[in-house]
Amino acid sequence: MKTYIMETKEIENNKSKKSLLHSGIILSIMTLMSRIMGLIREMTKASFLGTGLYADCFTVAFLIPNLLRRLFAENAISVAFIPTFKEYLSKGNSEENKKDTQQFLASTFTLVSFLTACVVVIGIIITPFLMPIFCKAPQASSADYAAQLEYYLLERNETAVLTRIMFPYLFVISVAAFFQGVLNSCNIFAPSGFTPVLFNGIVILATYLLSPYTANPARAMSIGVIIGGSIQAAFQWPFIRKTGWKIRFTSLQKTFTNPGTKKVISLIVPTIIGMAAYQLNDVVSTSMAKHVGEGIASSLQYSLRLQELILGIFAVSIGTVILPDLSGHANSKNWAEFNRMLLQAIKIMTLISIPITAYSLITGRELISLLYKNKLFDEESVRLTLGEFRFHIAGLVFIALNRIIAPAFYAQKQPKLPTLAGIISFTSNIILVFLLSMQMGGNGIALALSVASLINTIFLFIFMNKLEAMETGKLVRGTLLYALKMCIMSLIAAAPCYFMHKALVAHFAGYSRLIANGLPIALTAIVFAIIGVLELVITKDEIISVILKKVRK
Fold first, then answer.
1. Cα torsion angle, 533, 535, 538, 539, sign
2. Are 442 and 387 within 8 A, CB to CB?
3. Is the per-residue pLDDT at 120 higher than 80?
4. Minimal CA–CA distance to 310: which of 256, 367, 230?
5. Would you state the torsion angle of the CA atoms of residues 29, 31, 33, 35, taken in this order, to the nearest 10 degrees?
6. Which residue did the predictor score with more confidence, 169 or 304?
7. Residue 117 and residue 169: Cα distance in Å, rounded?
8. Per-residue DSSP letter, 512
9. DSSP 135
10. What DSSP string describes 461-487?
């Protein structure tokens, strides 16, 4: 009988592991699809808005509600709501426990709805007073003061209109985030993973369908944001009903006196401080971009979206396959394997990110032209975005390493250290943005982010000494030596590709955008990859065999 019970438990554990792996794979695919759809959304924006006045206005207008969403909605759900809700679920299925859980859900839903509705109303009222932060007023002594004043008034008024259109997005996306928290706590991941794909698709569709009927395409895209956010919430509703939990409102008195809701509030307040530093970084960078010149704010977003796509394709996959093992080794105190696995993950990310950086520096112009150049996104837009992309992509390896190293702290239940490293990095970024943007424009803002990412990586390695049984010296040496090896190998592969690329661009110059840009990218990539693989085989690189094993697994 005892043997039968043990075998039954083992079967259940195996089923649970397979279920979690299945959910992880689905979530990774959905994340990749979301990144791709996000890029297509930016391509649509580039086509309709370019890097002109309306593109900058939309970038700022979407920043404000989106910033509040990240700060409160996502943070509250991941840090506070899900752990508290899971505590309620772990108490069992008795009638009393179900009643308490149901009341907690009603109180939290009411809290989220009430607070975000208040913020939306206040935000819509005070929006005009926020505009001077992002819109540069003309100098009275300027020779073309009248023209500058006219531009300033148009920019300020249009940004205010777009912000007011999109401010309700905070409310609907907060409700969607709450629904996601409920579903994820019940181990249902696919619907929530699909909603960002749905959102981006609706924004794209709305831009095409509504642009002929609105004052400008930016307003059509803003309406699409509201519709997309609403559908994100509505799409999850049927799946919520299937869980058996009822989502309804309750009185404010019950809301603020509910023990679970009070715990949610107590958990989220401390984390807002760390998150605020990160979000403030976005506001300062965008504000400086708007003051530097027209098109800088929007071109920075186009550049970042391309970088995020490159990062997302690999970081999500590697995180899914390798990083979960870290927690298992930490829990079993198997520190030798923990250190080996971490160094292995760092090397894999370095193997991918450094060659991609070298290749992107060669073909950056063609990548941007292929993806974005259309209608209002002209040669000047390409020039602006390319300059910033080159500085953004230079920091790719550091951003990638940060995504690999930070989970090592979380696996050992030390989240404060990477948060501190992040705050130092963001503070450095703000200082660098002020110092570099005046001299280098948008390129300086992009460079500031890359340098700040490097600072973040350095401090993560420094703080690693505080973790249990970490071989920090060995990890640092291994990372630096392997990074140096990848730099040398990337330069060797890049040298022939650089000259080949120039010849291909010249040869296909008279053809359509797809051929003129796509063929040089594709042919250069094939040659670059062949040389790179040959180098790895000749040097008998140990990471190749590790990657193949992980892929087969």
1. negative
2. yes
3. yes
4. 367
5. -150
6. 169
7. 10
8. -
9. S
10. HHHGGGSTT--HHHHHHHHHHHHHHHH
Put simply, whether the predicted model's pTM sits higher than 0.85 gets the answer no
Q: Distance of alpha carbon 413 from its chain centroid, rounded?
A: 23
Q: Which of 345, 456, 369 is nearest to 353 (CA)?
A: 345
Please provide residue 367's backbone torsions phi and psi, each rounded to the nearest 5 degrees. -60, -50
Residues 6+ apart with CB under 8 A from 134: 60, 159, 286, 287, 290
Phi-psi region at 375: left, alpha or beta (left = phi > 0; alpha = psi -120 to 50): left
Report how far apart, in Å, the C-alpha atoms of 416 and of each of 270, 399, 409, 460 are.
Answer: 11, 19, 9, 11
Residue 58's pLDDT band, with cuts at 50, 70 and 90, is very high
CA-wise closest residue to 363 among 395, 397, 390: 390
Phi/psi region, residue 464 (left: phi>0; alpha: psi -120 to 50; beta: rest), is alpha
- Residue 363 has a CB neighbour count (10 Å cut-off) of 22
Give the closest residue to 155 by CA, choosing from 46, 36, 53, 3: 53
Task: Tell me the CB-side half-sphere exposure of residue 324, using CA atoms within 13 A.
Answer: 10
Strand partners, 374: 377
Residue 194 · residue 254 · CB < 8 Å: no
Q: Which residue has the tokens 């703000």?
A: 430
Copy the structure tokens of residue 93. 């299925």
pLDDT of residue 8: 46
- What digits encode the pLDDT tens for the residues 223-266? 999 999 999 999 999 999 998 888 899 999 999 899 988 888 87
d(CA 422, CA 211): 40
Q: Which residues, 6+ apart, have CB-to-CB distance to 377 below 8 Å?
A: 46, 47, 50, 51
Identity of the residue numbered 18: K
CA-to-CA distance for 61 and 55, rounded, in angstroms?
10
pLDDT, tens only, 185-212 = 887 878 888 898 999 999 999 999 999 9
- Ordered DSSP codes for 216-285: SHHHHHHHHHHHHHHHHHHHHHHHHHHHT-------HHHHHH-HHHHHHHHHHHHHHHHHHHHHHHHHHH
Measured between alpha carbons, how far is 43 from 49 in angstroms, rounded to an integer? Answer: 10
